[in-house]
């Protein structure tokens, strides 16, 4: 039986480098806000359940019915906090994670990851020796591992995923060149200007 999956949109960051909330940026390709664009992308993949990962002092956007808010269990824990909170709420086999600032992401790389997963094994792309953890698939069986890592002070996703790959809980896949642009992080003003310029040509 094909594993079931839920999706989470990570949008709890404080956007310090950007200077404004990245969730409210305008996507230059669609003219939607970043959160509208990413939410629509996740919905197009057909998850059974959908989560919004937020920090405790953050206002939730009016994203519509069918989205469940999950709050970071620890302040300033980075994306690890949102992944941990979402895995704790997960009732499906797998959790598809997408960060708010991957504004060039498309459905194809995410579908390819889903196709490589089993109920107890997720998938993550690698590029230049680094994992791409902010558009990846994590199995529900990792909920206790995520909580333990977070409570022990762990924040660096590269470290956590490295252990998971070694233990066989995650499959690492080389990032195809055709998907490379989709993993561009729009996390500061220069990156946003470059993204906007690419759609004006």
Estimate the strand proportion.
15-25%
What Rg, in angstroms, do the CA atoms define? 16 Å
Total DSSP helices: 6
Secondary-structure element pattern, one letter each? EHEEHEHEEHHEH
Low-confidence stretches: none
Strand arrangement across the biggest beta sheet: 3-2-1-4-6-5-7
Helix content: 25-40%
Structural class call reads alpha/beta
Question: Mind summarizing the main beta sheet?
Answer: 7 strands, mixed
Shape type: globular
Please give the alpha-carbon distance between the first and last residues. 45 Å
Calculate the mean pLDDT score and round it.
Answer: 88
Number of strands: 7
Describe what you observe in this structure.
The chain is an alpha/beta fold and 201 residues long. Helix content is 30%, strand content 21%. Helix 1 links the parallel strand 1 and strand 2 (50-54). The chain is globular and about 40 Å long. The chain starts with a strand and ends with a helix.
How are the elements arranged and paired?
Blueprint lengths: L4 E6 L23 H11 L5 E5 L12 E5 L7 H11 L4 E6 L7 H9 L6 E6 L2 E10 L3 H9 L5 H11 L2 E5 L14 H10 L3
Parallel strand pairs: 1-2, 1-4, 2-3, 5-7
Antiparallel strand pairs: 4-6, 5-6
Helix pairs in contact: 2-4
Q: What descriptors fit this protein?
A:
201 residues; alpha/beta; 7 strands; seven-stranded mixed sheet
Summarize the structure.
This protein is of the alpha/beta class and 201 residues long. Helices cover 30% and strands 21% of the residues. Helix 2 packs antiparallel against helix 4 (143-151).
């Amino acid at each position: 039986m094909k594993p079931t999956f839920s999706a989470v949109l990570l949008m709890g960051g404080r956007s310090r480098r950007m200077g404004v909330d990245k969730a409210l940026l305008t996507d230059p390709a669609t003219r939607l806000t970043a959160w509208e664009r990413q939410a629509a992308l996740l919905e197009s993949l057909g998850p059974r359940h959908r989560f919004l990962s937020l920090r405790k002092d953050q206002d939730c956007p009016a994203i519509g019915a069918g989205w469940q808010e999950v709050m970071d269990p620890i302040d300033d824990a980075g994306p690890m906090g949102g992944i941990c909170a979402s895995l704790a709420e997960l009732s499906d086999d797998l959790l598809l994670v997408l960060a708010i600032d991957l504004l060039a992401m498309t459905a194809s790389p995410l579908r390819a990851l889903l196709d490589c997963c089993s109920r107890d094994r997720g998938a993550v792309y690698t590029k230049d020796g680094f994992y791409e953890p902010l558009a990846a698939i994590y199995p529900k069986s990792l909920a206790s591992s995520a909580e333990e890592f977070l409570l022990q002070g762990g924040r660096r996703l590269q470290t956590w995923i490295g252990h998971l790959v070694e233990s066989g809980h995650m499959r690492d896949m080389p990032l195809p060149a055709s998907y490379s642009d989709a993993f561009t992080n729009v996390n500061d003003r220069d990156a946003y200007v470059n993204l906007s310029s690419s759609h004006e040509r």
